[in-house]
Amino acid sequence: MFKCSEKERKKICSTVLREKRMKASVKRPPTPDPEFERDREPTLKEIVNIRLTESGERERLQELLRERLIECGWKDEMKALCREFARKKGSNNVTVDELVAVITPKGRASVPDSVKAEMLQRIQKFLTPTAL
Predict the structure, then answer these.
(1) CA dihedral sign of residues 91, 25, 58, 104
(2) Which among 33, 52, 99, 129 could disulfide-bond with 58, CB atoms 3.0 to 4.6 Å apart, if both were Cys?
(3) Which tens digits make up the pLDDT trace of 34-43?
(4) Alpha helices in the chain (DSSP H)
(5) Contact status, residue 52 vs residue 58, Cβ threshold 8 Å
């Protein structure tokens, strides 16, 4: 599928497994069997994610995204939606899981296209010289 040395493949697979274990939560299914995972090739998404993380570019992109979302008022809009939801339901009756389930789709849909385009451009710029 992807051309990687055996050493790179093992490193990527172990990183993917470590990330999957770290993401465990109450609502997520159990982590797949490592023996099964070891034999499969990493996906393009996993390879890109690992390279972004290892280079430090992921953190830089996250910080840029935070800045852009604050600048455009998205963060304040999400705060207002959270407060409104808590007010309607009663602040003592709201769980974090409920809040996340309600607000996440609205938040993703309301990210300005200009911010999405800038982030995509930065990721493409990072990947161009790397050539997977």
Answers:
(1) negative
(2) 52
(3) 666 666 788 8
(4) 6-22, 34-38, 44-55, 57-71, 74-89, 96-109, 113-130
(5) yes
